[in-house]
């Protein structure tokens, strides 16, 4: 065998990356894996022994990659993987897939959900699923499938944005007579971003002008290459109207579910997502919870967002009382003290005291934010209108005297133009925004405007705690424009940095591909993959960028919390020094 066929493979690799390394298609690799009894999806990570089998079948001579430290590309973990991170593999059991339906308006999402709901025979004697609780389960060939009943990617993404990702599989509805439309593309992108596999339901096949071949070409163009063309996407022709193809669709869902091996530990900690909540006149707050790990029982004490309570009753989709709900089951619960919000995560806690403490902390954190909220530029106008304020107080910081003066002069002019409100510059100075500037702003309810300056680390922190609004500019007229807009009430909300965690760099080591990782201890909060960071050295930010990866032991993780040790790599930065601080932050609307 020629040495040119020797290939170095890492300890673990995703199917996608393996295919690329072996110059094969992902489908080819998946087929070889299947022939060897391994069901793997394109994003799944397989170990060296498994990838070596594939490489050998494709005529390579695999070797284990030699390296000091291994950094693998896992991709962002789907929520259910994160929820079961602490569970031992031997406790994990298969659970039903949770499916959400996305697609362009009028392509038949609601009709399809209704049609699928009517395939349910389990509830036959009760007259089928009559209760709309935000999610329902149907059974195909003795295997349950859970559907989220609120179609549309707005719901899907708002759940995702809140850290809750209910769905394991997306069914993308495309009308065969209308083809790929803007929301089809958007929905596909949302699903791809969430790394959730997509099945296309080619709907309205009963229509005379249905043109499936044309639509398949359109799908291929947006990266959803149909399976029959050797692609990765199953395209199932259906009609929500005549009900034709529904069985095939359910069959395909089960097939894809098998491939991604959706698991949970029914005996593990009970956690999941709030699907919807409503207020019932007689029973009080009701919420539909989707159990994602563990088992939910009557009598459990649950915290969901800022709601908590001892569950008095669980009800299934037939409005029947049930004692328990297992992973992937949607269940209507009674007993929460108030309504949680759709998309909130819920968890079972040990006792009411713990529940009350968690909720009190959450409330306090939210209220503190609201109360400490001082004048931001965009809020000013409403205060002026309500007569609360007659003055816009500013603190100006600029790089040099030469820029400070023109700004002050322009603000004077603005003052003369404006009758019902005055612009009052409390403090104008050259230099970076300091902690004392922020304290002044906090004490006098002023807004800080910086021109071509930076913020000291201390200042950033105090601003966050005190809720002081700081805006930084590089162009003078933009600064003036914003002040003028604020006076007229036209300003868009600003985004501010909120520190979510800090890590001390305690060691430095090389990783594969020649990169450098920082061995870190998390000293406060949490560090998340892909989050924004400042690399602080001697109190000065020497690099602003993003977290690229976080490893604990050899495992890539999505986030790490206070007290943990881990390896961190940043995008575009390797020159770590022991003693550096990695400060992780998010941008959020002022006042949250
Ligand atoms: P949504 O906006 O995606 O939820 O779409 P709807 O389910 O409300 O359907 C939009 C329209 O298409 C309605 O008038 C439905 O009756 C019709 N429709 C949905 N599915 C089919 C189908 O399979 N065949 C035909 N002929 N019409 C359908």
What does this structure look like?
This protein has 15 helices and 34 strands. It has 592 residues and is an alpha+beta fold. The strands form 8 sheets. An 8-stranded antiparallel β-sheet has the order 17-16-22-13-14-21-18-19, with helices on one face. Helix 11 packs parallel to helix 15 (476-488) and helix 12 packs parallel to helix 15. The chain is globular, with a radius of gyration of 28 Å. Mean pLDDT is 82; it is low at 67-77 and 160-164. Guanosine-5'-diphosphate (GDP) is lined by residues 103, 105-111, 151, 203-204, 206-207, 239-241.
Topology:
Blueprint: E1 6-9, E2 12-14, H1 15-21, H2 26-35, E3 45-47, H3 48-57, E4 61-64, H4 79-83, E5 93-94, E6 98-103, H5 109-117, E7 135-140, E8 143-148, H6 153-161, E9 169-175, H7 182-193, E10 198-203, H8 212-221, E11 234-237, H9 246-260, E12 263-264, E13 271-280, E14 284-293, E15 296-297, E16 301-304, E17 307-310, E18 313-315, E19 321-322, E20 324-325, E21 330-334, E22 345-349, H10 352-371, H11 377-385, E23 391-398, H12 401-417, E24 422-430, H13 435-444, E25 447-451, H14 457-466, E26 470-473, H15 476-488, E27 495-510, E28 516-528, E29 532-537, E30 540-552, E31 555-557, E32 559-561, E33 565-570, E34 581-589
The structure holds guanosine-5'-diphosphate (GDP).
């Amino acid at each position: 065998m020629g040495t040119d066929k020797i290939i170095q493979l890492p300890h673990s690799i995703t199917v996608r990356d393996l295919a690329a390394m072996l110059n094969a298609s992902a489908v080819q690799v998946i087929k070889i894996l299947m022939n060897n009894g391994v069901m793997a999806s394109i994003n799944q990570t397989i170990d060296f022994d498994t990838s070596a089998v594939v490489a050998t079948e494709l005529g390579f001579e695999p070797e284990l990659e030699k390296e000091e430290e291994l950094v693998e590309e896992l991709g962002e973990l789907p929520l259910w993987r994160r929820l079961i991170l602490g569970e031992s593999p031997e406790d994990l059991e298969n659970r039903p897939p949770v499916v959400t339906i996305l697609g362009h308006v009028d392509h038949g999402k609601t009709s399809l959900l209704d049609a699928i709901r009517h395939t349910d025979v389990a509830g036959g004697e009760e007259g089928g699923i009559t209760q709309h609780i935000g999610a329902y389960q149907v059974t195909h060939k003795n295997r349950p499938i859970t559907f989220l009943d609120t179609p549309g990617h707005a719901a899907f993404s708002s759940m995702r944005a809140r850290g809750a990702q209910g769905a394991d599989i997306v069914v993308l509805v495309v009308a065969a007579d209308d083809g790929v439309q803007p929301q089809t593309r958007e929905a596909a992108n949302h699903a791809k971003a969430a790394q959730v596999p997509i099945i296309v339901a080619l709907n309205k096949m009963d229509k005379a002008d249905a043109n499936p071949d044309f639509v398949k070409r359109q799908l291929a163009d947006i990266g959803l290459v149909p399976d029959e063309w050797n692609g990765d996407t199953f395209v199932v022709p259906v009609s929500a109207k005549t009900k034709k193809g529904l069985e095939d669709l359910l069959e395909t869902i089960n097939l894809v579910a098998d491939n991604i091996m959706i698991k949970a530990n029914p005996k593990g900690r009970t956690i999941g997502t709030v699907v919807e909540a409503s207020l019932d006149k007689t029973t009080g707050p009701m919420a539909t919870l989707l159990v994602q790990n563990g088992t939910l029982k009557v009598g459990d004490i649950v915290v969901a967002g800022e709601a908590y309570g001892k569950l008095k009753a669980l009800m299934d989709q037939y409005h029947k009382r049930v004692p328990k709900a297992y992973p992937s089951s949607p269940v209507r619960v009674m007993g929460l003290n108030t309504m949680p919000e759709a998309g909130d995560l819920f968890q079972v806690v040990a006792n009411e005291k713990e529940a009350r403490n968690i909720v009190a902390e959450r409330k306090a954190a939210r209220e503190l934010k609201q109360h400490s909220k001082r004048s931001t530029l965009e809020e000013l106008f409403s205060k002026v209108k309500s007569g609360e304020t007659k003055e816009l107080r500013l603190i100006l910081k600029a790089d040099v005297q030469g820029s400070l003066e023109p700004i002050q002069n322009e603000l004077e002019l603005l003052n003369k133009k404006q009758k019902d409100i005055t612009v009052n510059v409390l403090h104008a100075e050259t230099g970076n925004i300091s902690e004392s500037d922020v304290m002044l702003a906090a004490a006098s309810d002023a807004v800080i405007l910086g021109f071509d300056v930076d913020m000291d680390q201390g200042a950033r922190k105090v601003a966050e705690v005190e809720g002081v609004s700081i805006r930084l500019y590089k162009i003078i007229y933009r600064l003036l424009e914003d002040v003028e807009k604020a006076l007229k009430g036209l300003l868009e909300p600003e985004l501010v940095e909120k520190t979510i965690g800090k890590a001390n760099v305690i060691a430095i080591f090389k990783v594969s591909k020649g990169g450098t990782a920082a061995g870190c201890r998390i000293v406060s909060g949490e560090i998340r993959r892909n989050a924004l960071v400042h690399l602080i050295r001697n109190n000065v930010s020497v690099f602003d960028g993003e977290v690229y990866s976080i490893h604990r032991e050899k495992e890539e993780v999505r986030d790490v919390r206070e007290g943990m040790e881990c390896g961190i790599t940043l995008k575009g930065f390797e020159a770590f020094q022991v003693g550096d601080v990695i400060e992780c932050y998010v941008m959020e609307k002022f006042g949250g």
